[in-house]
Amino acid sequence: MTNSILIVDDSATTRAVIRRAVLLSGVDTSGGVHEAANGRLGLEFLARHEVGLVLADLHMPEMTGLEMTARMLADERLRAVPVVIVTAEPDAAKLEALTRQGVRGYLRKPFTPEAIRKLVTETLGVARAA
Amino acid sequence: VQPDALALPVVDALCASLETMAFVSAFPPDGAGPWPCPPGARRVTIEVAGPTPAVLELAASAAFGAVLAANLLTCDPGDPAAAAGADDALKELMNVTCGSTINAAGGRDFELGLPRVEPLTAAEWDALTAPGGGGAHVLEADGHVVAVRARVG
Question: pTM score, two decimals?
Answer without folding.
Answer: 0.90
